[in-house]
Hints:
Elements: E1 4-8, E2 28-29, E3 35-38, H1 43-55, E4 60-69, E5 79-80, E6 84-86, E7 92-94, H2 97-106, E8 113-114, E9 117-120, H3 128-138, E10 142-144, H4 147-157, E11 161-169, H5 177-183, H6 191-200, H7 204-226
Helix pairs in contact: 1-4, 5-6
Amino acid sequence: MNGLGIVAALAAETRPLGRALPRGEALATLADGTLLVVSGMGRAAAEQGARRLLAAGAEALISWGMAGGLDPALAAGTLVLPSEVVSAEGGHFFTAGHWREQVRAALAHGQPVCCGRLLSCREVIGTAADKARAFRQTRASAVDMESLAIAEVAASQRVPFLVVRAIVDTAHDALPASLIDAAAGTGSVHIARLLGSLARTPADTLALVRLARRYRAASRTLTAVAVCGALVPHAFFRPLSAGGA
Length: 245
């Protein structure tokens, strides 16, 4: 064990790390000693996953996976290494700066990276209009649903915290309601539910095809991070505070 624990909301997001872990399975240990848990979507699930990692011996936490774009300038596949995580309720946490730069410096030259603010929400922001509103109100570059909870757990235990996310749906993309319904509250997309939703709303099919292309770009980015060899924080970065509200 190397002291690192990673929380991912969806099993598909863990494939770049070397394996897909079904939700509810015991913690996985990756080849380099990293602990991994698939929590399911949302703050409560992410908090539980983070606490499981710390109880198992993790000394640093990463919020890992996909994010939605709020900044119209960000393309699908852009790596998001935010300097801070905020919430609409006023939560505010900084990520570990030295660790963030360690990862950024190890990436291939030319890899698009955004280190702006990440908004962490309780609900999915699925329409282009809602994304534009969130961008105006928070100036956050991207959005997810789990990072704030993981940041809170890290701060309470004074362990380093980092967010590693890749943009999948851009600020211009609307998330199909059928996909949101099929993934809500789980660690994987419920295929039968998705097909049922598509039968009722066939117009979502084109949006899903476009999102699949975006997903491949985001997955390639996460794979590049996974293989860069810099996810585990150097020993001299510890102990670090994860920040505070």
